[in-house]
């Protein structure tokens, strides 16, 4: 990718609707995406992240388990609500769970919040890696990221947290850009008197 192509990608990147993602994602492409996604700033080289792949029939199984969990937690689901939960992980051909794995790291520990930022950078890098290989991707979290029992159903350990679920596939859909914040409204120059 040339500098101009990279700038074009970054300036036009959009997340397509998950339901629009189709096709297949071969193992070689998955490996390449995850290798690229892993190239992030990582203070102390702790690697405070890992990946869980949801593909094939496992996507349907996890959807059924999430629907059961939501019904157990919130009460009976309508048929439409149950179907929505059951299809959470089967709308795209591949879902990659980017998992934050906190690391105990000695007498001068790197703060857990900084480690979590690293795992978030992995999720963002995965969006770019998918695009670089000709795919499209959408990064979400959803209710099951904050539910301890749902996280267990999704394959996380008790101490782990969700950085995101990245849904990956192919689509020809073109989305108009949404309104973006003006950079001028977001930046200030530092002021030593604390007014910056």
Describe the model:
Belongs to the nitroreductase family. Its cofactor is FMN. Pfam families: Nitroreductase. With 196 residues, this protein is of the alpha+beta class. The protein has a domain of 128 residues: NADH Oxidase, CATH 3.40.109.10. The protein has a four-stranded antiparallel sheet with strand order 1-2-4-3. It is built from seven helices and four strands; from the N terminus they run ααβααβαβαβα.
Give the secondary structure arrangement, pairings included.
Layout: H1 3-12, H2 27-37, E1 49-55, H3 58-74, H4 79-86, E2 94-100, H5 112-132, E3 136-140, H6 148-153, E4 161-169, H7 183-186
Antiparallel strand pairs: 1-2, 2-4, 3-4
Inertia-based shape: globular
SS-derived structural category: alpha+beta
Main sheet properties:
4 strands, antiparallel
Q: Can you count the beta strands?
A: 4
Name the helix and strand elements from N-terminus to C-terminus, one letter apiece: HHEHHEHEHEH
Strand arrangement, major sheet: 1-2-4-3
CATH class of one domain: Alpha Beta
What is the end-to-end distance? 38 Å
Enzyme class: oxidoreductase
Family: Belongs to the nitroreductase family.
GO molecular function, one term: oxidoreductase activity
Protein name: Putative NAD(P)H nitroreductase
Keywords:
196 residues, alpha+beta, NADH Oxidase, 4-stranded antiparallel beta sheet, 7 helices, 4 strands, globular, oxidoreductase activity, NAD
Write a short abstract of this structure:
The protein is an alpha+beta fold.
